Predict the 3D structure of the following.
Amino acid sequence: MRPFFGSCLFAATVAGVFATGAGPEPISAAQAADAAASAEALESLRGALAAAGKSPWDVATEAWAEVPLTKADAVTARDLLWEAHRAAERAARQAEIEARELRDGDLVMPLFLKTFGEKPPRGHALWISLHGGGGAPARVNDQQWENQKKLYTVEEGIYVAPRAPTNSWNLWHEPHIDRLFHRLIEDLVITGDVDPNRVFVLGYSAGGDGVYQLAPRMADHWAAAAMMAGHPNGVSLEPVRNVPFALQVGALDTAYDRAKIGADYGRALEAFHAADIGGYETFVKIHEGKGHWMDRDDAAALPWMATQTRNPVPDRVVWQPTGASRASFSWLALPADAPRGGGIIEARIDGQRIDIARAEGIETLLIRLDDRMIDGDRPVTIRCDDRVLYDGPVTRSIATLARTLADRGDPELLFACEIAVAIPATE
């Protein structure tokens, strides 16, 4: 694994003053959020949300939504926006779940749901379990779906076994799957049934192929992931830095070299963890004497998964945007029209400092922040190696909260501040 601080051949231009002094100084009273103006903006938000026909994210275009907020008012605004979003969407999302199917254009993804245990105060865990099959007649994938419905049980949570919308070989990692799973998670969070920080993905055979692909692609959604008897098809697992990853395969599963490649990937994950103790938690088991079918011994990963909880704002993230992925990932984002694919971004927060180790193939990077991560009343510094890219204040605003709500629909991924860093092409 490469060291975090590597060579960096880019600079940035952003609004603000680039500092050359030793350390950040407290921002002046003129720069700080004015408490009276902040309170007035919050009252404007309450009035707007009470108006009939007003969507919570519509407020982003209002002039008062750009007024700097105090820390306390930013927290209140965040809660108001999320509750308004839930109220506006709840009936439609509940209807989708009750219909037991989700749609993406002409594609339909049927759903099997079963609830285990009592619901905790923050909501159930969500277990998304992917069936095998793949490039086969529909009846084969239907049979695999029926098997997946009863393959695993959990002590607590909503167990969802979706039926893949297609019968292609890559049935669980086509681009529409990301959109459908995001919708499924958001539906169950909005209805209040699921804790957004306890969402798990697991899959067997072709479903394991899907976990290999979706765990890194949607890494900021998962509390943990479990791959059973699948093939990675060359995917990099570097983006699962914050996703505890279980990998199991039968030692005699020689088709497509699943056993050999699974063991190689397991060792790679363990090496990542050894170099970065704060990340890449793994559960790796190669089942001796087992072939493609592991006689349900692979269920051992589920209790381990159940102990995991997503941190929505980890101090270090590794993101590899793809054409199938969203334009945002945890506390990083790209402009909506930016090309995605072929690049990788690695960034870390340490106090008031954000270090960007890699931003390959990226022209503009958006860094989203709030007081869970930094002290929003003090300046932040963005660096690459010893280069200062930005040193200045951050501004909390209702507009940024509303935009990130519209972008993610996740109560844990609303951010009050955003800084844009322009990254010129390397030589």
